[in-house]
């Protein structure tokens, strides 16, 4: 049995045999075969012969699949060239080049995966032969010959597609690939202008042209073209026209995005086409709710604007049109948040550019802010709308409801931009857009989705607002606190728990302001105490309680407020909070108790807290030693964890008692 037959059998066993031991044996044999010099002859013979030798047997073996064997041959040739191609003699390399070109011609009509593997092997051969003359020039000469043959253009297109990809992947800068840019672009233009009888063939060829152009754009081919000829370059027109063809839209977008991000001077050229993008493509897509087109255009226009924010800041007709188009993309009510999210980098770069204008450009900055004020004001409205939860989350009444992953990711990316918008609009105007009053009116249905989103935004910009000393009417927040305090615990579920959490975040972020209002301390403490008991809001409420105790300690010393704190501390044993949340609560209470000046009151409060700690530890001592608990690992683990937490609280609270005793002794 010759080697071709053995290779075919091994490939068949590897791909189809039901016995794993047979597949392992076949794989081992093929791996060993790849280490031999026979690979060169066998693999090239498989790829260049019209029929495999084993297929000429009568009857042919039933297991034989030419495609599987040929694909394997192309793969091992590529790997062999990559690993050993540098050591081949020049004559052997020439023969191998000719054999691969024959194979490329043979499979130019398919299968496409096999043609790609052959072209990858060709590219690898070219890159490992740089020390011998000019292999790239030799390849292009051979491609011209191949181009003149029937269906040869398909093989040439594939070869020209994978070659720059291999050059970029291997970071090979010595092959002078871009010196052939004029010939390649001329060939691509010729292919793009061909008209085929079959629509499917035409669209497929155009996709191949776009894919090839994308490879060369990524390699930097347009840097070889005079800048003044770019706006009217016929291939650029071909790419823009391809945007109107559904089958080629995605590749055309990729080409244009790559041009915008990687070629200096092209963003301005692309910006001049924004009217076409908006009026011809985007408006129609928004009307028909074509999310694929909207998403692609959103990415492209964002890339154009991000590459040249100065052009947008100039507030030219094209710049404002691009900003308006992207506002439409942000506001589009898609099923997820990816479209709006894809624009955030552009808006952030634009805002940062305006805010970063130096003192010498202060006048220009003021002009830019004035010109784009309405844009960023509208952007804030659109972002607040898109940052709302979807309807399924809003109506979900389960105990474990939370923000969808897509929305959580979108909001995380939104944080920096909201801070920039707040700086541009100024905190006073920003807060005015968040709160309009009337939420607590009995005649108005509260838009809870809108409320929760605006609470999120208010929390995000808290540091900036506090720095600017911009005080807003906190009564709006207290109205919400009052509403939630009146909701029975069994009614607080689903999305309302998320609103509760967002409200607690705001309370914690603005605790410094709250400390100036003595009358609202008790309602806030009760609100936080109730929220600590709920899994969805416990972390936010515990954190807010600690911040509140840090910043408003003077108003918490009131007996009624201290009593609320005691109630929270004594209930820790029953609540079984996450350890992180419990640490926040213990820290908050300890902070207040440590500052109580009345020794008798302090002793009394500490005794109450330590008593609850003793109870948790006592359960372990009294009940944990019994046989019933030892035979129930789950119950024993629970009581052990409870005792550990009780001991932790005892240490924290007891620390202040010890300090007090030492102080009394002195």
From TrEMBL:
Q: Which GO terms describe its cellular component?
A: cytoplasm
Q: Which residues form the Exportin-1/Importin-beta-like domain?
A: 111-256
> Entry's InterPro entries?
ARM-like, ARM-type_fold, Exportin-1/Importin-b-like, Importin_beta-like_NTR, TPR_TNPO3_IPO13_2nd
GO biological process annotations for this chain's record?
A: protein import into nucleus
Q: Pfam families annotated for this entry? A: TPR_TNPO3_IPO13_2nd, Xpo1
**TM region(s), chain numbering:** none
Name of the protein this chain belongs to: Transportin MOS14 isoform X3
Native organism is: Populus alba x Populus x berolinensis
């Amino acid at each position: 049995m010759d080697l071709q037959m053995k290779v075919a059998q091994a490939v068949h066993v590897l791909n189809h045999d039901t016995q794993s031991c047979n597949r392992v044996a076949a794989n081992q044999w093929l791996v060993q075969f790849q280490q031999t010099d026979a690979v060169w002859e066998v693999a090239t013979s498989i790829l260049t012969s019209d029929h495999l030798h084993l297929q000429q047997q009568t009857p042919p073996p039933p297991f034989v699949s030419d495609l599987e064997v040929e694909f394997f041959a192309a793969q091992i040739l590529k790997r062999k060239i990559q690993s050993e191609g540098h050591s081949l003699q020049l004559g052997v390399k020439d023969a191998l080049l000719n054999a691969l070109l024959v194979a490329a011609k043979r499979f130019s009509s398919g299968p496409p995966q096999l043609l790609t593997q052959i072209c990858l092997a060709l590219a690898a051969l070219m890159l490992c032969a740089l020390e011998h003359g000019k292999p790239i020039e030799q390849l292009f000469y051979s491609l011209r010959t191949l181009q003149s043959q029937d269906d040869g253009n398909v093989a040439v297109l594939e070869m020209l597609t994978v070659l720059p990809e291999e050059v970029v992947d291997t970071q090979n800068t010595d092959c002078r690939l871009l010196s052939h840019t004029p010939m390649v672009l001329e060939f691509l233009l010729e292919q793009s202008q061909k008209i085929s009888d079959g629509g499917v063939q035409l669209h497929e060829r155009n996709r191949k042209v776009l894919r090839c152009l994308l490879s060369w754009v990524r390699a930097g081919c347009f840097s070889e073209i005079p800048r003044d000829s770019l706006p009217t370059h016929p291939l650029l027109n071909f790419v823009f026209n391809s945007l109107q063809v559904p089958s080629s839209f995605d590749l055309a977008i990729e080409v244009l995005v790559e041009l915008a991000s990687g070629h200096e001077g092209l963003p301005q050229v692309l910006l001049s086409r924004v009217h076409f993008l908006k009026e011809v493509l985007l408006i129609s897509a928004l009307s028909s709710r074509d999310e694929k087109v909207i998403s692609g255009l959103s990415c492209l226009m964002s890339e154009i604007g991000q590459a040249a924010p100065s052009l947008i800041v100039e507030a030219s007709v094209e710049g404002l049109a691009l900003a308006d188009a992207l506002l439409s993309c942000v506001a589009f009510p898609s099923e997820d948040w990816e479209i709006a999210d894809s624009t955030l980098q552009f808006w952030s770069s634009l805002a940062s550019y305006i805010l970063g204008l130096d003192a010498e450009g202060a006048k220009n900055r003021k002009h830019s802010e004035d010109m784009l004020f309405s844009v960023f004001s509208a952007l804030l409205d659109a972002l607040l709308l898109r940052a709302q939860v979807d309807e399924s989350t809003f109506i979900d009444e389960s105990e474990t409801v939370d923000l969808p992953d897509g929305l959580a990711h979108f909001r995380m990316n939104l944080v920096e931009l909201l801070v920039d918008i707040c700086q541009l609009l100024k905190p006073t105007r920003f807060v005015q857009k968040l709160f309009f009053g009337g939420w607590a009116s009995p005649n108005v249905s509260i838009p809870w989705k809108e409320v929760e989103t605006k609470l999120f935004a208010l929390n995000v910009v808290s540091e900036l607002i506090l720095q600017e000393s911009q005080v807003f009417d906190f009564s709006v927040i207290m109205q919400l606190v009052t509403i939630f305090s009146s909701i029975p615990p069994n009614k607080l579920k689903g999305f309302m728990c998320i609103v509760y959490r967002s409200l607690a975040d705001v309370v914690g972020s603005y605790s410094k302001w709250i400390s100036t209002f003595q009358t609202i301390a008790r309602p806030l403490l009760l609100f936080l105490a109730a929220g600590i008991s709920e899994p969805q809001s416990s972390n936010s409420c515990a954190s807010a309680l600690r911040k509140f105790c840090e910043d408003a300690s003077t108003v918490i010393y009131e007996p009624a407020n201290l009593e609320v704190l005691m109630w929270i501390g004594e209930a820790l044993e029953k609540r079984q909070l996450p350890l992180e949340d419990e640490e926040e609560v213990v820290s908050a209470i300890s902070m207040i108790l440590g500052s109580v000046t009345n020794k008798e009151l302090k002793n009394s409060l500490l005794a109450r807290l330590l008593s609850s700690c003793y109870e948790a530890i006592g359960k372990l001592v009294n009940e944990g030693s019994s046989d019933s608990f030892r035979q129930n690992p789950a119950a024993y683990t629970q009581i052990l964890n409870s005792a550990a937490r009780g001991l932790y609280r005892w240490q924290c609270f007891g620390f202040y008692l010890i300090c007090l005793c030492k102080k009394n002794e002195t």
